[in-house]
Description:
By secondary structure, the protein is an alpha/beta fold. It is globular.
Amino acid sequence: MPARLLYTGQVVVDLVMALDALPRSGGDVLARSASFETGGGFNVMAAACRNGLQTVYLGRHGNGRFGDLARQAMTAEGIEIATPGSDDQDTGLSVALIEPSAERSFISYVGAEGGLSRDDLHSVTVQPDDFVFVSGYSLLHTHKVSTLLSWLAELPKGAGVVFDPGPLVNSPDSAEMQAVLPMITLWTSNCEEALRFTGCEMIADALEQLAKWLNEDALIVVRDGPQGCWLRQGSKAQHVGGFPVTAIDTNGAGDAHAGVLLAGLAAGLSAEQAAVRANAAAAIAVTRWGPATAPKADEVDVLIKACTV
C-alpha cells in the first residue's frame, strides 16, 4: 500500500476577516472582507492531497453548521474521513484577523475536534510507510491527549511521526511533550516556534538543540519565511532557499509547506528536493487569500521551473 498521511489534529472552520488594523481593547473596526473557510488541520491535508499524497482525517468533526462545512471541504479535496460525526457538538470556530502586512491573529473556540477515543484512532490500520501527523494543539486538549499518546506508542515500526508544535507549545518541559519527543521522526515548525520551544536566539542553535532532544535520524525542518527553510538530519544542517513573491496573506502558508513536504517525501524525493517543492508551495500560498491556499503539483512545477531557467 502506498504511503498515506494520517492526520490526528483538528479541523476547524475559520472566519477570515481582512482589516486595516486590529482594534484596541474595547474598540471596533470595519473589516474589508469576511468569509467562512475550513481551516486548521484541513490546510495540511488539502496541500498533501493536491500534491498526490493519499490522506485520512483521524480527528473528530461536529454535528451542525460548521461540521457540515468541514465535511464538505474534506470530501471535495478527496480526504478520507475515518471517524463518525459527534452527536452533541459542532466543529470549532477560529476567527482569523488579517492585517495589510499579511500578519494574522487568531481567536479560537474548541468544538468536537477537541475530543478523541481509542475507537476513533483504531478505525484505520497504520502501515509501516504511513506518516502520522501530530499537532501541538492536540497536546492541550484534555479529552484527547492521553488517548493519542497511548495510540502513538503502539504504532508499527517504520511509521513516521510528524510533529508540528504550533504557536501554543512553548517548551519541551510538559509530561505530554516529553512523551512525544522520542517518537518524532520529522519535526516541522516555523522559526519563531523553534526558537521559543528551544529557548534559543539563533536558528542554528535551535536546530542543534532540537537534534539533541530528538532521535539521531529525525529530520528537522524549520521554516524561515521568504528565506525558505532549514533542514537538519544527524549532524548535517543546510539552508534551502525560498522563492521571491509579494505576500498578501500568510495564513496557511506553513500548512501548505508541511503538506507538500510530506507529499514529496512519500514520493521518494530526498529531504532537500521535498523542501524545494515545499518552499515553492508556501510561496504560492502567500499570494492568495484564505487558509487553504496550497497549490497543486503542476503549479509548484511551474514556479520551480521559472526560477531555475
